[in-house]
Design a protein that fits this description.
Layout lengths: L21 H7 L1 E7 L2 E6 L2 H13 L3 E6 L2 H14 L3 H9 L3 H5 L16 H15 L4 E6 L4 E7 L2 E6 L6 H12 L10 E9 L2 E12 L2 E10 L14 H11 L4 E6 L6 H12 L6 E5 L10 E4 L8 H8 L6 E4 L5 H12 L3 E6 L4 H11 L3 H7 E13 L4 E4 L3 H7 L8 E4 L10 E12 L2 H8 L4 H10 L5 H10 L5 H13 L1
Parallel strand pairs: 2-3, 10-14, 10-15, 11-12, 11-13, 13-14
Antiparallel strand pairs: 1-2, 4-5, 4-9, 5-6, 7-8, 8-9, 15-18, 16-17
Helix pairs in contact: 4-6, 6-7, 10-11, 11-13, 12-16, 13-15, 17-18
């Protein structure tokens, strides 16, 4: 047999796959590629595929023509191609052609589940929604009921976008299907429920956190998708500039102290903490975390999930792990004085403590700790540095184009050496016409110097701390963002979208 080293999407004749199940092609390690004259060309790995190809070719009145391919090449191609054939709108079109009243009662009683197959319309719809979300790299799926219908929205690169508006009649069946695979109670419709799903979608291991709440118009579901194969990224991949990256690595090498990461919800703080733990994770260190929830499992690190219902708060968890002989501790968030106090005392007794705070910038994190009730001298002696961050979308590299900046844009940049050109994305198939593809961070790193320590002890406000830090070379979020704009990584519109409130303040 002829051997092929790769199978491209363009090589595949998609119509051949319309009536062939994913189970069949994966089970036989067989991928039909195209018809050519009177032959059916298909990639196989062994005799199973050859026998299955003979049967398939016979049913199409064609002669089998197998080509040899590695198992991984075939499986990767199957996952890619079959995810393309599960378009949400196509499935929705099929469903609307069926009896909607029958679909609406699919999940009315648990006994009916035994009769359902993977071909049940609602199962096909949810599977298609999950596949499309993974393909578009969505972080969340929202299923929202309204008076006349349902909105299904994806959050991609931090922006919500409506993808589907199914009829209201199928709402209960769709939510029930989500509950079933998340292991929740389908009969309970009055109370909020949280669950977790582990799925293999398009060959990728996906963790899905499910949150369902009752609203006046029906239950609303949000599915948070976590790609376990992408997993935790390294510090070098976060988009930190060389100076901040080098300083942060030096601070992580310290023997004791607190390192804080700050920013609003959804600004990537947990990702930065995980990247830091990845850097610190060696055999000679004992690392324990207290999180809400545990988003990714890290090998070699003890991770504790908080549960306030049974009294396991951040403070209680932190107090417990102090008795586990830790070298490094990570607290998901400092929310109250008790947690802050334990973190400070742990750092003063020979531990590195990593945590997050919700503040707009790095100097505000210092005053927030003092406002919580921590003595200023304790903050001054325990805090090493504060990293503030935001996430901005990256200009799509496939449709990136230069343009001449306007006077207003030059004023925003405000640098003495103005760039001749800036960059933006005009929109293409790869970025779904948005002009952006993926995200990176903008950062500011505030080091607690001896001068700042005396200001903290003197209870100076955040603005005064910031002014002194800037004179000492502190690079603000806006300045870091301008560097990324000049280098064509992001745009002024995108920076203003995530920092406008801070700039006005």
């Amino acid at each position: 047999m002829e051997t092929v080293e790769s199978i491209k999407d363009d090589d595949i004749e998609l119509s051949l796959l319309n009536n062939i199940s994913l189970t069949f092609v994966k089970g036989n390690l067989l991928l039909p590629i195209r018809r050519e004259d009177d032959k059916l060309i298909a990639a196989v790995t062994d005799s199973r595929g050859i026998l299955a190809l003979r049967d398939m070719a016979r049913s199409l009145n064609l002669k089998p023509h197998p080509v040899q391919a590695d198992e991984k090449i075939i499986l990767d191609a199957i996952n890619r191609i079959y995810s393309q054939t599960s378009r949400v709108n196509e499935v929705m079109g099929d469903i609307e052609g069926e009896d909607l009243s029958m679909i609406a009662t699919e999940f009315e009683s648990p006994q009916d589940l035994l009769e359902l197959t993977e071909e049940a319309p609602i199962i096909r719809l949810l599977n298609a929604l999950l596949m499309e979300a993974v393909r578009e790299k969505a972080s969340d799926i929202h299923i929202e009921p309204y008076e006349r219908g349902i909105d299904v929205r994806y959050r991609v690169d931090g922006i919500l976008r409506k993808v589907l508006s199914p009829p209201k009649i199928i709402h209960d069946a769709l939510i029930s299907r989500v509950k079933i695979i998340a292991g929740l109670d389908i009969a309970e419709k009055r109370l909020p429920q949280d669950g977790r799903i582990k799925l293999l979608v398009g060959g990728k291991n996906i963790d899905i956190r499910v949150s369902i709440i009752p609203t006046a118009l029906g239950e609303r579901a949000v599915l948070r998708l976590l790609d376990r194969q992408t997993g935790v990224i390294s510090l070098e991949m976060l988009g930190l500039n060389d100076a901040i990256l080098s300083s942060l690595k030096n601070y992580l090498a310290r023997q004791n102290g607190i390192i804080l990461v700050t920013g609003p919800t959804g600004s990537g703080k947990t990702t930065t903490l995980y990247a830091s733990l990845l850097k610190l994770n060696t055999e000679d260190r004992n690392i324990i975390t207290v999180e809400d929830p545990v988003e990714y499992q890290l090998n070699g690190i003890g991770q504790m999930h908080v549960n306030p219902k049974i009294g396991l708060t951040f403070a209680a968890g932190l107090r417990s792990i102090l008795r586990q002989d830790p070298d490094i501790m990570m607290v998901g968030e400092i929310r109250d004085m008790e947690t802050a106090e334990i973190a400070v005392h742990a750092s003063l007794t020979g531990h590195i403590v990593l945590s997050t705070l919700h503040t707009n910038d790095a100097p505000s994190a210092i005053t927030r700790l003092v406002d919580m009730g921590i003595e200023p001298f304790l903050v001054a002696s325990s805090l090493i540095c504060v990293l503030a961050q935001r996430l901005v979308r990256i200009v799509c590299p496939h449709c990136k184009e230069p343009y001449e900046p306007s006077i207003e844009e030059r004023n925003f940049i405000g640098r003495v050496s103005q760039p001749a050109l800036l960059y933006r994305g005009k929109g293409c198939d790869k970025c779904l016409g948005k002009g952006y593809l993926g995200r990176t961070g903008i950062y500011e790193l505030l080091t607690v110097t001896p001068e700042l320590r005396s200001m903290i002890v003197g209870r100076k406000d955040a603005q005064a701390i910031k002014s002194v830090a800037v004179k000492s070379g502190f690079t603000t979020l806006q300045s870091n963002a301008v560097d990324k704009i000049i280098n064509g990584i992001t745009t002024i519109e995108e920076v203003l979208r995530v920092t406008q409130r801070d700039i006005e303040n």
